Amino acid sequence: MAKKQLYYEDVEVGTEVTPLAKVATTQMLVKWAGGSGDFNPLHFEDSFAASQGVDSPIVHGALKRAWLGHLMTDWIGDGGFLKKLACQYRGMDYPRKMKTITDPQEGETWWCRGTVTKKYVEDDQHIVECDIWVENAKGEKTTPGSATVVLPFKKAKS
Amino acid sequence: MAQQGSIITDEMKKQIGVKGVPTVLEVEKGLIRMMAEALDDPNPLWQDEEYAEKSKYGGIIAPPALLCCARAGTGRGVQMKSPFPRALAGGDEVEYLKPLKAGDVITSVSHIAEYNEREGKRGPMLFTTIETTYKNQRDEVVAISRSTFISY
Amino acid sequence: MAKQLYYEDVEAGMEVPPLVKKPTTQQLVKWAAASGDFYQLHYDKDFAQAQGFPSVLVHGKLKFGLLGQMLIDWIGEDGVLKKLGCSYRGTDFPGEDLICKGKVTNKYVKDGEHIVELEVWTENPRGERTTPGTAVVALPSRG
After folding, report:
1. Do the Cβ atoms of C47 and A97 come within 8 Å?
2. Domains of chain C (ranges, CATH numbers)
3. pLDDT of the residue at B105
4. What's this model's pTM, rounded to 2 decimal places?
5. Distance of alpha carbon B37 from its chain centroid, rounded?
6. Fewer CB within 10 Å, N side or C side of chain C?
7. pLDDT score recorded for residue A157
8. Cα–Cα distance for residue pair B139/A126, rounded to 1 Å
């Protein structure tokens, strides 16, 4: 499948990173536990989560970080390179429960978003910096962060 | 010829023996380790390279539980129909013909072997038995499983 | 590893050393990840309760795997597990002891192999057999 490539010239300060919607589910958390090896019961056991004062199991911070990675790698395309990704786990997010083995219940949808804050050339690399975040259904930024990417450069037309 | 009141329809019967899509699973060491950790089974044949190399298997092998689970494709792609909303695993039986070694590439194919219906404590129940054949990259059959699913 | 078991060491009626397990909710999540069975009955308590169970259930195939562990520990590296089957008759819950047991039912030589047949099962703390089954193993012979 041919994907459209983003180029350095296509972005300016203020350009929006193509948003990515995510639905956290209890099933996704179990899959993430397996994929990441983080089996902290805070992310799947009600009584343990309650004992930790968070009401019910919460979305792994590292999963939200991975969503932001997905946001950026989709946006920069195969020809771009993710140099740096950082974020803070400011707010807690609670997954939707599963209605069937494949479908979640109705509920919250999260959005991964970003905007370009800076672009420059350094050591022949075309660098773009972005503010990025995960936003909950109330529009709160629960996971703010930043990313630095290298984009390909269209050869100057003469 | 469906008996009166049977929940096993002719359409369901037509699915008996129809092969599902093959599933390919590479038996990676990481997966074997995850399974050993999930079983909390410290057998060094599953994880200790040096130990396993000196054993008669010549390397890491997989615990027997690997060959009837979802990851191994058991039941994948068969048209399992039931008039009931609730489902449970009824049982598994696996016949092991060859050791399953790390690095093997297993292709599994499932089909519905039979249906049975019974009156249970919670009302009528449908038992569907799925048979799955697992072959390695040398086209050797490494195992055959029969898994029963209950719906009620 | 334990010492090797031989065909001559076993007789009908002999018991397999029990394997005592106590699955946790964490172990169920690990099993979901390893097995690829992500059915929420095994990690969502509300869902399990809506299905009429007091809490999330131990996966049947995890119990199958634990019976396999018990047998392989018993037969040793020169033994071969030829067949294992069990029915998920009763439900088991995390936090409770799950005891894997087995008993030899038959032994014979067939096609040069020294075969031992067993009855195997898991037992809950109330002594109920929740996962009855059978197994066939081949053991080395002292000759």
Report:
1. yes
2. 7-24+58-139 (3.10.129.10)
3. 97
4. 0.90
5. 20
6. C
7. 45
8. 51
In this structure, what CATH number is given to the domain that contains residue B94? Answer: 3.10.129.10
Neighbours of chain C (3+ CB pairs under 8 A): A, B
ipTM of the complex, rounded to two decimals: 0.90
Nearest by CB to residue B34, choosing from C33, C69, C85, is: C33
How many Å separate Cα B145 from the centre of its chain?
Answer: 5
**Domain around B101:** 10-27+62-151
Pick the residue from chain C with its C-alpha nearest to B29: C34
C71 to chain B: nearest residue by CA? B64
For residue B70, tell me if it sits in a domain: yes
Per-residue pLDDT reduced to its tens digit, B83-139: 888 888 899 999 999 999 999 999 999 999 999 999 888 789 999 999 999 999 999
The answer to whether the Cβ–Cβ distance between B91 and C66 falls below 8 Å is: no
Q: What is the mean pLDDT of chain B?
A: 91
Q: Are B68 and B74 in contact (CB under 8 A)?
A: yes
Contacts 24+ apart (CB under 8 A), C38-42: C38/A27, C38/A30, C38/A31, C38/A101, C39/A101, C40/A26, C40/A27, C40/A97, C40/A98, C40/A101
Tokens 């899509």, located at residue? B21
Please tell me if residue C68 touches chain B, with a CB cutoff of 8 Å: yes
Note whether residue A51 is domain-resident: no
- 3-state class of B37 per DSSP? helix
d(CA A71, CA A65): 10
pLDDT digits (tens), chain A, 158 positions: 457 899 999 999 999 999 999 999 999 999 999 999 999 999 999 999 999 989 899 999 999 999 999 999 999 999 999 999 999 999 999 999 999 989 999 999 999 999 999 999 999 999 999 999 999 999 999 999 999 999 999 875 44
Query: C residues 109-138 near A, CB within 8 Å?
Result: none
Taking contacts as CB-CB distances below 8 angstroms, the residues of chain B near C73 are 43
Domain membership flag for residue A41:
no
CATH number at residue A88: 3.10.129.10
For the segment C56-82, what is each residue's pLDDT rounded down to a tens digit? Answer: 999 999 999 999 999 999 999 999 999
The pLDDT value recorded for residue A158 is 41
